[in-house]
Amino acid sequence: MSKNILILASKNGWLGKYLRENGFAVEDVWKNDHFSKRKYFILKLFNKTKLLYGFDKELIKQYDKILISQTNGISSVVKDIKIWNQKANIKYWLWDPVKTYPNRKIDELIGAINFGIECFSFDKDDCDKYGLKYNNNFYPYYNYVLPPRCSIQKSCL
Q: Fewer Cβ atoms within 10 Å of its own Cβ: the N or the C terminal residue of the chain?
């Protein structure tokens, strides 16, 4: 592994664009910024969900630290990343409270936690209930907290 941090988020979303402009490596979790539940569940039956990823095995092998922004199918994503790069330090960031999830997504979250990754939430109740780590959610304030072209400390993960 020669690179430091890879962020798996929507590459063309506001966060992905902002992070790329500030020098971070950002890749889509899912191809074409799209997650199709129908395709996902069909491919999951055959253990082929990786065909939908916006990243690949060779890319994952290059990074020491991987931060995943909230996404569908997180337990499959984490499972494959762990297989491809056992030494990668993986962190998962939740943007919404767990109570807004359908039960299937809660099962996915618990599956990801069972792989030993750190999961972060801004919701203190969720942290207590699911064993998540607390961290603030800067989303509503990102224009004020992170002015354009600011220096983001890349060693924070």
A: N
Q: Where are the domains of the chain?
A: 3-145
pLDDT at 140 over 50: no
Instruction: Give the strands of the sheet with 25-27, arranged side by side.
Output: 25-27, 3-8, 63-69, 89-93, 118-121, 133-134
pLDDT range class, residue 6, cuts 50, 70, 90: very high
pLDDT in tens, 92-120: 988 888 877 766 677 788 878 888 889 88
Which residues partner with 7 through β-bridges? 26, 67
Q: Could you tell me the end-to-end alpha-carbon distance of the chain, in angstroms, rounded to an integer? A: 16
In whole angstroms, what is the distance from residue 151 CA to residue 114 CA? 34
The helix (run of H) or strand (run of E) holding residue 145 is helix 142-145
Measuring CA to CA, which residue among 88, 83, 69 is closest to residue 9?
A: 69
